[in-house]
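Researcher: We're teaching a course module on how sequence relates to structure. For the next exercise, students receive a sequence and then see the predicted structure as tokens, so they can try to spot secondary structure elements on their own. Here is the exercise chain.
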Amino acid sequence: MVYKTEDTRHPLYLGNWKRAIPNIDHDIALDDLDEPHIKRKHAILDKHKNIESLYGIEPSTKYITLFAVSTQIVLAYVFGHYIQSNILLVATAYLVGAFFTSLFGVIIHEVSHNLCFESPFLNRCLGLVVNIGIVFPIFASFRRYHLEHHAYQGVIGRDPDLPLEWEYKLFHTNWFTKTMFLFFYPVMYVVRGAAMKKAPSSWEYINWIWTISTDILIWKVCGARGLLYLFLSLWLGYGLHPGAAHFVQEHFTFFDGQETYSYYGGLNWFLLNIGYHNEHHDFTK
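Model: And here is the predicted structure for the students to work with:
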């Protein structure tokens, strides 16, 4: 096939570029080659055609979604009406709620790839359901920009997962600035999307209206502390938390020539195998 003879990276499709070293390099690593995953997919299927039999939706995700969202709403109600300890609220948000928020992010990822239902519309509806537990309208924007990330991985100005220039110049130099980067990562994620300067889609408007409405309902039913619990779960679960480690693991370069990484540890059991990121990019639906 053409990709075998013309691309010297075959069959692993690792690049020849060197990763950027903090305090030595002052720019990100660059190369002029296409992303590796489509070609590696074909190279893998040449030898393991049976992988295609594993394609399909996961019907249990919708039940996991209902359980996880319901659990978070119940906890929000408990903290809104019965438990007044701020220390316990923050501790529960970090030790319980943040893990559920990380799970919500994974489910939003799954529905963005239409992996929960055959119908794209039903996947979007499930995205709205899981967004109830996040208190910020994430689902529709994530779906839009994440699919662009797959289409334009590593292309500056097109891949919304790439850090902006001011990000890596401001945060790359020492452990403290990197810690602040991770702490404020929920903001970074929103800023990167805004930097694309695209008009919101109709589903993004629907997501905003839906989430504002559910937030108001949660405020009325669970009280301000209940909504605060969900907000802290979001902030902590997308920041300095084990459940958010995949944001660093997936595409931050740890080895020369490799731009995507997988994690095979125990958190995959709870987070629906989100760590299998090389595999996900190689066989994206």
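Model: If you want an answer key for the exercise: The two ends are 23 Å apart (CA to CA). Residues 117 and 186 are 28 Å apart (CA to CA).
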